[in-house]
Amino acid sequence: MKKSCDLMTWAGAAAVACVAVFAAGRPVAAEEAREHSVFVEIDAHEGPVVVPWQNRLYFTTKPDFQSEDTHIAIRYVDLDTQEIGTFLPRSNMANGMQLSADGAALLVAEQGTMDTPGAISRIDLADGTRKVIVDSFEGKPFNSPNKVIQSSDGWIYFSDPDYGANQGFKPEPQLPPAVYAHDPSTGKTHRLTTEIARPHGLALSPDETVLYIGDTDAIDGKHPYDPEKSHSILSAPLEAPHRLGRLSEVLSVPVGIPDGFIVTAPAGDIWVGAGDGLRHYGADGALKAVHDSAGPVFNLTQHGNAIYSTADTAVWRTDTLPDGDDGED
Known about the structure:
- This protein has 329 residues and is mostly beta strands.
- It has 1 helix and 29 strands.
- Strands 18, 19, 20, 21 and 22 form a 5-stranded antiparallel sheet that branches.
- A hairpin with a 5-residue loop joins strand 10 and strand 11 (130-134).
């Protein structure tokens, strides 16, 4: 099949992405019995996280890197009324987010700017109070933290690629791209790996013994999409909360990059935001379904039997079966 490349904004992953649409064979169609549709039209780019006690879905907005005043807001949509509100009109270039273990705050991967360091922060949902959890490693500032997740025992995992510098809103990196683990109980941060060219999305297995990491080197933020470089999800056993075992590839998406993804219980299925929409894989990396979202999907989150995904122009909702499947076997 001929590779067709279109220039498009891939904010938070690359300023300009040339997406090669060359899936081998015909994509698996999403099944008709499941609902997959636009939940609300809004410039939702990243970070989706549901706060149950507020009945809200929070997200970070699409930045305009051509603007002299590039910024990212944190907004939310009410899950019942679909009313949209603004939590923070300006953030420190927030990207991925997760609800804190106590449910009272957002954990935010802040990419930072030329003047403010990137960080992992905690932003209180009640009043917007921001507390920096960590903003450096061995005395050097992070590059541009991208995704953040937290385990049930409190450890915080985050990726730190170099997209900020490549997109022109951060200084040149002082650290290699890496994945980190932070222990809030001690305040100590551990570097898990620098083996991945551009670490991006993160997820834990349902039993939290395996860490999944996206490598999105195919889009580096300043060059066209390069299909010869990685656009894969890898995994490694967590031998300890701060130590990874051997990395191995789980899957590679044929269109775009695996930007954000989640791993669902109980089977460990992997739902991936990619260049052609929302992709559903089994735990073994076998494709189950592709849900067309009229373009790329950047990140996603699960709430009950629904998956909400962000696609720059809208939030999409995909209903699943009670076990997290979607009917394709």
